Amino acid sequence: MMSGKRVGRHLAHTGTRGDTYVRKKRFGEFLVETGLLTEADLTLALSEQRVRRGKLGEMVVALGLATETEISQALSIQLGIPLIDLPNTPVEPQAIELIQEKVARKHFIVPVAIEHKELHLAMADPLSFEAFEDVRFASGYTIKPFLAPRSDVLWAIDQHYHLGSSLSTIVKDIADERRVEVLQKEGGEPDERDLDDLRKKSSAAPVIRMVNLIVAEAVELRASDIHIEPTRTNLQIRNRVDGILRKTMELPKWVQGAVISRVKIMANMDIAEKRLPQDGRISVRVGGRNLDLRVSTVPASFGEKVVVRILDSANAGIPLDSLGFSPPELLKLEEIIGRPQGILLVTGPTGSGKTTTLYGILNRIKSVEDNITTIEDPIEYELAGINQVSVQEKIGLGFATMLRAMLRQDPDVIMVGEMRDLDTTTIAVQAALTGHLVLSTIHTNSCVATVTRLRDLGVPSYMIASTIIGILAQRLVRVICAKCRVPAEPTEKDILRLGLKPRIPVFRGEGCTACGGTGYKGRTGLYEILPFSQPIRDVIAANATENELRQMAISKGMVTLGRAALEKVLTGVTTVDEVYRVVETEGDFASACPQCATPLEAEFVMCPACGYTVSSTCPGCRKSLSLEWKFCPYCRFDLLKHEPRRTFA
Questions:
Q1: What is the pTM of this model?
Q2: For residues 429 and 435, what is the distance between their CA atoms, to the nearest angstrom?
């Protein structure tokens, strides 16, 4: 008898002779031709079939002449019906609801999915005319058959028609206090038939408890996003904690349909639509906290991928003081937002905390004397005393359209979620020129790069110089866990790249249960603030390059993102590795000469303008030295005897 792999290859080869030729053969002759059975095996199986009056394939399996999978493979090729791997195939609850369990057990069938007007049906016997008629009558759908071994069909019936007991083995230890209460549903109503189809399965207590566990665990870990990702063999759950994804759960493939359908019903999304991306929203209460969940689905290769953004309304009231601003930075920012008109831009990559910073600014400046309006996509947090409007691109209500309308609403302060195009930016500039304070975000890497981006959008340099009052670039870095923080020695790379002095202690997290073994817990902000003073306006109006503008900004006291990050490292807030992760270029570590304010790059060892010594290197080994050292600790070089030869290059 052939092995499974050889049978598969031989069957595939045999199937290429032509469907007409293959299908005319009896199944027993086909098994002999493929080499799965010998003539003697077939004679024995036929004899057993006459006695027991069963199907030939069942007799072959009962006699141990072939496995159930091998028989299914052969039948699949002979009939031209695709084989389905039920244990690794997600089964849709709405498909299960179409066929009663007694019908499924009678015909050894499992409804798998609904696609357009077709019902995908896994069958142990795809030649059963009675099964086709019963399913067509019960469902009203056209049947698309798939072949599966009988044992797989029976397993799938047990799993999916008794989903509650199947899931109970996974969620039996979930405590009651982790219950997630759905407060309200928003958005369009799904088709009533789809909702009825899924009501029982997706409302079964174990399914609810499963989804509750996923949400509650993410909230407990302080996650910002939940990723529900179908793979070939399972359903993977990952949470984004402190900006980094962590794998938190792995569920069997067969629960995929129930879990994703439950999330979509909670978000009031169209359950039947699996081919197009969808968005939804859920308001829930977890552990006494009211949360807003933004749900997004996209069709992926192994099923719908779901991402849930967790928004905590408590974050809307976070004061600026707790966002990681140093006292000098906070003073600069307050001076900027205290002006009656102009544009303040907050810049940084996605997920860098720009919206939270803007909300903090709004909370700081809001007053009953001012009319403050925001235009957002979407509204992330509800702020008391502020008029918030959500854009709706589907009906033509974009940022530019809404901004034009807002200017007729007698505003004092306008927050625009993002400056995406020239139209929105032009209107914002006009608003600033007519006496309004405008707050907005833009996607660039630094303050000076923002000026270049505005020029690329088509805003003239003189207009940038006259309307912008300040730019705030920011990043988020993870904070070292206070419970496992230990000293660490900076490496030679750290000393050379960051300008650290040897033997200055830095810190790292060893990893503990409090931080999940990562060494980090929580995040804080890094900030680069560029107030638009007159010298800055002059160089921008003169079309200065990024490098020229950057040098001017540093000479006027701007602290770059790199220097701000270095300060967090030296004070033990974060690690050197985090600095490397969020700060893009070496130039970000530049500072100004303390003697003449000339901008200095990170690798400079002396000021090119006044000769002020920033750091020195050993003539023997070229490693960085501290100015007070008399001997090189790396190569024992006597620095006193060779003082005239001491180099600064």
A1: 0.71
A2: 10
